[in-house]
TrEMBL record:
Domain of life from the UniProt record: Bacteria
Parts of the chain that traverse the membrane: none
Statement: the UniProt record of this protein carries the keyword Transit peptide: no
Organism: Acinetobacter genomosp. 15BJ
Protein name listed in UniProt: OprD family outer membrane porin
Keywords in alphabetical order: Signal, Transport
Family note: Belongs to the outer membrane porin (Opr) (TC 1.B.25) family.
Signal peptide: 1-30
Gene3D superfamilies, A to Z: Porin
Amino acid sequence: MNHVHKFNPLYLRAAILFVMLGFSSPIVVAAENGKSTQEEWKLTLKNAYINRDYDNPNLKDTGSWSQAASLFYKSNMQDTPLQIADKPVTIGADASVQYAVRLSKDKHVADTVLPFDTQTQSQVSDFLKYGCYSPIKMSMR
C-alpha cells in the first residue's frame, strides 16, 4: 500500500486566501481629553486574492486580486446647549473613507469584490467610498 499524499495546489491556494483575507492592519490612535469619550482614528489595510478555478470549462474564472485602505474617524461627543426633558444633548461626527484598487486584469465577470457594470460587462479598476454621520446622545441621568 502506498500512503504517499499527493500535493494538491488547491489546498495551498485556499490557505493563502484565508491568510490574505484575514490579514488586516488596524492602526488605532485615540486621544484622551479628560472625558469618558474619546476621539479615534483607525486605518485598515486589506489584500484580497480570489481564485476560483472551476473544473467545468463552461464556467468563467471569477477570481481577482485587489488591495484596499480604509480610514475611519470617530469624534468625541461634544456638549450642546440643547436639552430634552431637562437632559443634556451631546453631538459628534463620524466619518469614513475607503479606497480599493484591482491589481489583476479585468476578466469581464462579476466577482462581488469590486463593482461590476452589467451594461459594459466590466469591473471597475478602482473604487472610492466615503460617508459621514452625526451621532446624537441624550443623557438618561
